[in-house]
TrEMBL record:
Cited SUPFAM superfamilies: Homeodomain-like (SSF46689)
InterPro entries on file: Homeodomain-like_sf, PsrA_TetR_C
Residue span, PsrA tetracyclin repressor-like C-terminal domain: 117-224
Ranges for region Disordered: 1-33
Name the record gives this protein: TetR family transcriptional regulator
Skewed-composition ranges (Low complexity): 11-24
Short name of any one Pfam family annotated for the protein: TetR_C_30
Organism listed in the record: Actinophytocola oryzae
């Protein structure tokens, strides 16, 4: 069941087809790509396009060997996206844990959204070249790859704790409205980060811009989406009020 107000909406989980990092067997009649460098894989996704790139193309561009290379085993693009996402999620875990340790009863919704977003954007800011945000943007267009990204993200204890805390600051809303807003929030976060990542890579981000300033603006956007007035709730309250008035007259 979907968490009605979860900033990262639930999506159907993709069935794992392999465990990255564990040597596996060749499936009969199909190639088993093996790569030794996840940085290269991220770049390949961005340059070639996650949806258009076939598993065979991975083998060609990455010079994949038929045997084991550094222990990495990926039967499909979904397995590779899983490994890329897991590496990123684990990499930002300690940063978010530090932010969580600083949170207290005075924290508001923007503080908790900062705990959600700053670990991701700080990771990008600390590196001269990154690809992960654009990998996510590519994967969001593919239902299977999108599911893998969300499945891996939900494995993060600090992310779950942050989202659980955020629930207490969000207004009540119907299930359908929460689902719509969750999807919009996810798209906004991914696309804004991907566009800035691309601008940084191209050298067009601007001298006055920074990941930190972008994150502050992104927090405002997300807070606005989640706390915006809900027409369905207002109509329900109005209907209930009218019903109560009719009851008093009778």
């Amino acid at each position: 069941m979907r968490d009605r107000r979860h900033p990262l909406p639930s999506v159907p989980l993709a069935r794992p087809r392999g465990v990255p990092g564990v040597p596996g067997r060749r499936a009969k009649g199909r190639p088993v790509p093996r790569v030794s460098n996840l940085d290269t894989a991220e770049r390949l996704f961005v340059q070639q396009g996650a949806t258009a790139l076939s598993n065979r193309r991975f083998g060609s561009v990455l010079d994949v060997a038929d045997g084991t290379v550094s222990g990495h085993h990926f039967e499909t693009k979904a397995d590779l996206v899983r490994a890329i996402t897991r590496r990123f999620t684990v990499g930002v875990e300690s940063t978010r844990a530090g932010l969580l340790a600083q949170m207290d009863s005075s924290a508001g919704i923007r503080d908790w959204l900062g705990c959600l977003l700053h670990p991701w954007t700080d990771h990008f800011a600390q590196r001269s070249t990154t690809y992960f945000a654009r990998v996510c943007a590519q994967a969001m267009a593919d239902p299977t790859l999108r599911a893998v990204i969300f499945e891996e993200a939900r494995q993060s204890p600090t992310l779950r704790a942050t989202c659980d805390a955020l629930d207490g600051y969000l207004p009540p809303m119907p299930e359908e409205t929460a689902a719509q807003r969750g999807d919009v929030v996810s798209q906004v976060i991914v696309q804004v980060c991907a566009e800035r990542e691309a601008a940084v890579a191209a050298g067009t981000a601007g001298t006055g811009a920074s990941w930190r300033n972008m994150t502050v603006g992104l927090i405002d956007m997300v807070a606005g989406i989640w706390t915006a007035p809900c027409t369905a709730v207002r109509l329900a309250e109005r209907s209930a009020h009218r019903g109560a008035g009719l009851g008093e007259r009778t």
